[in-house]
Specification:
- The complex is a heterodimer of chains A (224) and B (222).
- Chain A has 224 residues and is mainly alpha-helical.
- Chain A contains nine helices and no strands.
- Chain A is elongated and about 75 Å long.
- Chain B is 78% helix and 0% strand.
- The longest helix of chain B is centred in the first third of the chain and has 34 residues.
- The chains are: A mainly alpha (224), B mainly alpha (222).
- The interface between A and B is large, with 39 and 38 residues.
């Protein structure tokens, strides 16, 4: 492979191993953090969207619709430049994670609302009839069914988040794409290293998609 | 924030730039969607053709595009194609190429689902009245499929419009790039980004409303 000859692909890849590894770990860390945050917040906002007191519901609706109507890149840039005005001096990485989470929260919330409303009303009525309180109805009856239905779009949102982390490169977070660009700027092997990055993204996303499919198979025993 | 004073003249002074940028973004989205629809239709037919040598490469194309970040694709096409000796694309053309390929992958899935949802009886009926295979596609399958897929095509147009914001990364002066530039020049952070967000939001909403009208007019099969 010629790991000792500068200018060959093998050598340059070996030289770039730490940059690439750092890039991947930043990408994975940002994605993981965003997915966890967005799932938790999204379930909260989605529940408000489905059952909330109407002023709250209106607020949640406005939040979801606004965030779904603005490109993620604009959200990221807005967060990055805007937070500083509020005296919140966050590093680029956190500004990016906040923006991505806000965006993904809106998507998860909307998915959850759809899933919750697709649970037959009889389920809610039956839960009421056996005397469960609202949090219990949610916890034991509605959410277990809704979350199963939410699984496919949730996995898609996860993929969107991983792909969305590339946008953090625009505000200077050295994730996989920016570290690839730095490597390319050093050795000018454009095709090779963009292909490497593409392959890495493909591996990450393909595994998430497969994991999602496995989860779906695992939880799809419930049918109506 | 306490001592931030809004100065909206920065928006009114640059209104022409903002409007031109928005128009450019819309144009990019529409052109890419049009090319993407053609690619997607061809790809969808290849997928359902039942021939492995046709459907396997198309499957790979769709999966690769759907699992790769758009920004990476934009950079790959913009910086990578010259390595293959393709120098004649300027940045706008290279972006349109990328967005079209990107949209094509998504549209192919939409059209594939559309083709699969055509009732068998339609095709049998078309056969029964003696239509040739291409006539069946032209007069029976395609019109029905376009009506079925219209909502998804519309959603794709809106998300494609939002994706044109990534053109900022290769310095195409669409809305995000313009906003960023004006922000850098004037440092009116809130005004600039609020205006850009509002413009994206308003455009996306108008598009959604227009598409809903279009759907009411065409999407139902009577």
């Amino acid at each position: 492979m010629g790991f000792t000859i500068p200018g060959t692909f093998g050598f340059e890849l070996w030289q770039a191993r730490y940059s690439l590894l750092r890039g991947i770990s930043t990408t994975l860390f940002a994605s993981g953090l965003t997915i966890v945050l967005a799932t938790l917040l999204g379930i909260l906002v989605g529940t408000v969207l489905a059952y909330g007191w109407w002023p709250l519901r209106l607020l949640a609706r406005a939040y979801v619709d606004i965030l779904r109507g603005i490109p993620v890149l604009v959200l990221i840039l807005f967060t990055y430049y805007g937070l500083a005005l509020f005296g919140i001096n966050v590093p680029a990485f956190w500004a990016g994670v906040i923006a991505l989470s806000a965006f993904a929260t809106a998507h998860v919330a909307e998915n959850l609302r759809g899933a919750v409303q697709s649970v037959p009303t009889g389920q809610m009525e039956a839960a009421k009839a056996i005397g469960l309180r609202f949090p219990q109805r949610l916890r034991y009856v509605i959410l277990p069914q809704a979350i199963r239905r939410m699984l496919p779009p949730w996995v898609n949102t996860g993929l969107e988040v991983v792909k969305g982390t590339t946008l953090l490169s625009v505000i200077g977070v050295v994730e996989l794409l920016l570290s690839t660009q730095q490597i390319v700027a050093r050795n000018y092997m454009i095709i090779d290293f963009y292909l490497v990055a593409g392959l890495l993204y493909l591996i990450i996303n393909f595994s998430i998609a497969q994991l999602g499919a496995a989860l779906e198979r695992r939880f799809s025993y419930l049918r109506y | 924030m306490i001592d931030y004073h809004f100065d909206w003249t920065v928006i009114t002074r640059n209104a022409d730039k903002f409007v031109a940028a928005l128009g450019l973004g819309l144009g990019l989205a529409l052109v890419s969607l049009a090319i993407g629809c053609v690619i997607g239709l061809a790809a969808a037919y290849a997928r359902v053709s039942g021939r492995k040598w046709l459907s396997a490469p198309v499957w790979a194309y769709v999966e690769v595009i759907r699992c790769t970040p758009l920004l990476l694709l934009i950079f790959f096409v913009y910086f990578g194609l010259p390595e293959f000796g393709i120098y004649f694309l300027d940045k706008t053309q290279s972006l349109i190429l990328t967005l079209s390929l990107y949209a094509g992958a998504y549209m192919s899935e939409v059209f594939r689902a559309g083709l699969a949802s055509i009732p068998k009886q339609y095709i049998e009926a078309a056969k029964a009245i003696g239509m040739r295979p291409w006539q069946r596609q032209r007069w029976v399958v395609l019109p029905v499929m376009f009506r079925i897929t219209l909502p998804s095509v519309g959603n794709n147009l809106i998300s494609l419009f939002k994706d044109t914001s990534l053109a900022a990364a290769i310095a195409i002066p669409e809305l995000t790039f313009t906003a960023r530039q004006i922000n850098a020049n004037t440092f009116r952070v809130m005004e600039v980004w609020l205006a850009a967000s509002a413009m994206y939001l308003a455009t996306a909403y108008l598009m959604a409303m227009g598409l809903r009208l279009l759907e009411r007019r065409y999407a139902s099969i009577r």
